[in-house]
Write a structure and sequence with these properties.
binds adenosine-5'-diphosphate; EC 2.7.2.11; Carbamate kinase; alpha/beta; binds ligand VHF; Archaeosine Trna-guanine Transglycosylase, Chain: A, domain 4; 19% strand; 5-stranded mixed beta sheet; 2 domains
Amino acid sequence: MSIDRSAIRDAHRIVVKVGSSSLTRPAGGLDGYQLQALANNLAKKALRGTQVVLVSSGAIAAGLVPLGLTRRPKDLATQQAAASTGMGALMTAYTRVFTMHGVQVGQVLLTADDMHRRSHYVNASRTLERLLELEVVPIINENDTVATDEIRFGDNDRLAALVAHLVDADAMVLLSDVDALYTGHPSAPDSRRIPVVRGPGDLTGVDVSRVGSAVGTGGMQTKLEAARMAVAEGIPVLLTSAAQAGAALAGEDVGTLFTPIGTKSPARRRWLAHASHSSGRVVLDDGAVEAVVRRQTSLLPVGITGVEGRFTAGDTVELVDRRGTVVARGLVGYDAEELRPLVGQRLKRGAGLRAAAPASRPVVRRDDLVVL
Ligand SMILES: Nc1ncnc2c1ncn2[C@@H]1O[C@H](COP(=O)(O)OP(=O)(O)O)[C@@H](O)[C@H]1O
Ligand SMILES: N[C@@H](CCC(=O)OP(=O)(O)O)C(=O)O
């Protein structure tokens, strides 16, 4: 099926992510004009019946001026202080513009852990569903004040893709300070706009190595990763600048369109494939890779050659082939310590009756497994 920009225009539920560079000034502080222009476009879209979820960066950059800072601080505690101050300013500004149109907004702050843990993920999903039913535009950001360096997303691109999975979005729009993906850095004279990306092959030779704006964090690399995650689940992505938001939402020929590669999978499998945190690895022999990947069978102890990491039964693990390539993810049926002595063993007969016996059950059941 060929997907064009009308998929963005006609999406019933859309996730729009806007980066710090589009909402704030280079030296920090909110750019009220840009924010207002974006919020106007999104409010109008919502009033036409589209369910809009906004993932907005900008809290840290917005908090710089009130704290007397002129550039993004290096240390985490000051970044968190800036985010704490700036988030209020960001929400106040959004609330003012959206409510002028009669559209309500709701603040949702998420941590990486809220995506990794199944119970938190389901809880966040319930809240977002209810907000959308109530015709509220959720405004999501990472909960920077409690996120530590080890666990934080940092940029919001990946978070936006996970939110698109979470709410089962029909499309995702990534808004930045650059109007499209280019073949090289936009300032390089021979760089050209890439209008459509239909698969990884279209990205061969594309240079995204140079970092972005002073206030943004991820650069183009994290946007490509977010686009890859979304299109793998059947969600088309449009990447453009915040200045082009209105045109993008109207389906005009702006930016770079990433067309879906995969089809939508059930919510639990989406979480397993992209959001869940992996606690370890199980190494498969060639026969087990064939069985799991091609025939989509359960993984049995006889097909594994190694166990890495510390996990307990019910955790997510990566299933890797003998070269270390991740071929699938799944919920493991054993604790790591329990599984190590069972490597290569055949299942005992009467498994279901003697659940506590060694090698009595699959390492990962087929229903708890997603092939990548
Ligand atoms: N090939 C490329 N095409 C487009 N932009 C690129 C490319 N390589 C690097 N960039 C940079 O990525 C930046 C966007 O990333 P970032 O500053 O993190 O934005 P945001 O704050 O919107 O997340 C652009 O300003 C641009 O300078
Ligand atoms: N949560 C952070 C996002 C930081 C950031 O710079 O993100 P991005 O502009 O999306 O690369 C904030 O609100 O400041």
